[in-house]
Design brief:
The chain is mainly alpha-helical. The protein contains seven helices and four strands; from the N terminus they run αββαααββααα.
Length: 184
């Protein structure tokens, strides 16, 4: 669980922006921008992940008691029904839920104990099939660090991604649902 919490809050530079702060070596060579991260340069898992889990937990809790609609879920989640519908469509495309218009509402296609965090992550995070860490594309081949940075990082970052996905796969939505029931 620790690795999930660390990676869910992990901040990684996704782009380089021009900065007045330039790194220079002792001999005066320019090795590129070394500016501070701005808010838009942080990478983290979007709220779609936790909203999707909320949708599933609420659907399970209220089934048979309440028609589960995007408007109803939006009230529980504190979000716009359009956002909820978009996430519901992602969950439906992944085969996790079925959405029926009109009197149908939402049904969950398999037990919560068989829906992992990894299933949710792959369903709602639009870049979940890509590498978790992206390399900057043009490190300077003239710089000894730039020339070697990709090879130096590659194996450790692949292991972190593998560990992250294995940790996600080891947790289910049932755990969340059970925790909610314990708090009632």
């Amino acid at each position: 669980m620790t690795i999930i919490l660390r990676l869910l809050t992990w901040e990684a530079r996704t782009t380089l922006k021009p900065s007045n702060s330039i790194a220079h070596s002792a001999n005066g060579r320019n090795y590129g921008n070394c500016g501070k991260k701005s808010e838009e340069e942080k990478m983290q898992i979007s709220t779609k992940f936790t909203i999707a889990i909320h949708i599933l937990a609420a659907t399970e809790y209220f089934k048979g008691k309440q028609k589960i609609t995007s408007k109803f879920l939006a009230g529980s989640i504190g979000s716009n029904p359009v956002i909820i519908r978009n996430i519901m469509l992602m969950l439906q495309d992944a085969g996790i839920i079925e959405v029926k218009r009109g009197p149908g509402g939402i049904t969950i296609n398999r037990p919560l104990s068989e829906i992992t965090y990894l299933d949710i992550y792959k369903a709602v995070e639009t870049n979940s099939e890509e590498e978790l860490f992206r390399f900057h594309e043009n490190p300077s081949p003239k710089c000894p660090v730039g020339r070697n940075i990709h090879n130096a990082l590659n194996s450790s970052l692949k292991k972190i991604q593998f560990d992250f996905e294995m940790e996600l796969a080891s947790h289910t939505v049932q755990e969340v649902y059970d925790n909610i029931l314990e708090k009632l």
